[in-house]
User: What shape does this take?
Amino acid sequence: MKIVSFSLEDGNKYYGKIDNARFYIGARVPYDGGKGLMNTVGTAQQKYDRAAFRPEFGFWADFIHPTAMAEGALYHTLNTYDRAHFTFSFLQFAAHVPNGDFVTYFRALLKLPMAAEYFPDLVLDQNRICKEGANGISPLESDTSTELLIDYLNPSLKEIEDTEIIQAARFIHWAQNDPMHRQTQIAVGVANFREKMVGYAKQYKLDGVADAICLMVADIRHQGRAKSPEIVAALQSGDPLESLLHIGDAQYHERLLTLRREIAALSADGTFGRRRYSIAERDFILH
Assistant: This one.
């Protein structure tokens, strides 16, 4: 079992220690009257590299790249201060959505060999994340709620609790030290985008639409920065990609600059611009 110790240093920085190895957990940050942790600091080796995963996932490894860069791209990217209570991974999977990306990801993690070392009190039962206790096991999530899972990870947004720090430390250390953990992040991220694209293609009439435009729709929905009427209006404009790249600009200007830069780079190297989405194939095809 991994034992976590931690310390608060330099006024607002938490550092952890597991297996006598010291590592950065995150900075203490204020947000909307509360407090939480944020970690967007890391090395190039700790960041998503689309080329490394293209042999296994093909174009999808490239497709998720701009969103990954906008979300921090680090395998240990952490945020515990907003309404999701706990987001983690290179795509910032969010714990507040029942059956969402974080729940799917955590279920997959609990199937890995190292799961019992990092979360010895958790098990999977009927594919639900459950906590073991004196009275047996109890589910922490369901089809309608992740409230108990959130309580397990980060009980409150008002203050930073020891529980929040310890759980964050476990996720960060595991992601940094187990390649199977990182592989799971990528597999879940790609599967989630592939599945969602089927629905987006039908909802927004994206059959036969260019890859970059599809990526922007997927990114908007992933972040949740706009509702469908605004997306539809952008798609019906004279320049759909440019219109989509302006949605939410006032509030998310830096994110949109990142997306614009990454899409331009992928277009320049020929990755984007040669494929269109096919509902029949449930995939992007060359045209």
Notes: Residues 206-286 form one domain. The radius of gyration is 19 Å. The first strand starts at residue 5 and ends at 9. The first helix runs from residue 50 to 57.
